[in-house]
Amino acid sequence: MMDGDTQLSSTPLGRPVQTACGGYVLLEERTSHTIFKGRQVYFCLPTCRESFLRDPNTSCMAGDLLSSDQ
Ligand SMILES: [Zn+2]
After folding, report:
1. For the whole model, what pTM was predicted?
2. Which of 1, 59, 60, 63 could form a disulfide with 52, with the two C-beta atoms 3.0–4.6 Å apart?
3. Residue 19 DSSP label
4. How many angstroms does the Cα of residue 14 sit away from the middle of ligand 1?
5. CA separation for the pair 65, 14 (Å, rounded)
6. If you measure from the C-alpha of residue 32 to the centroid of ligand 1, how many angstroms do you get, rounded to a whole number?
7. What is the DSSP pairing of strand 39-43 with strand 32-36?
8. How far does residue 48's CA lie from ligand 1's centre (Å)?
9. How far apart are CA 39 and CA 42, in angstroms?
């Protein structure tokens, strides 16, 4: 089993999850996501994920993540 990094997500498939952009998408197996500072982060589009990974500190969503980080 290779579910080690999926245990952070308790959201079942088909349920809405907030994306890095502040929107919502229904969680699917193919939903773009990554782990940022130990948190599961979702993206509405693969391009959003690429943008975030390129520069997490200035992406449209990072402000919320960074500000809530202790
Ligand atoms: Zn987006």
Report:
1. 0.70
2. 59
3. B
4. 18
5. 23
6. 10
7. antiparallel
8. 5
9. 10
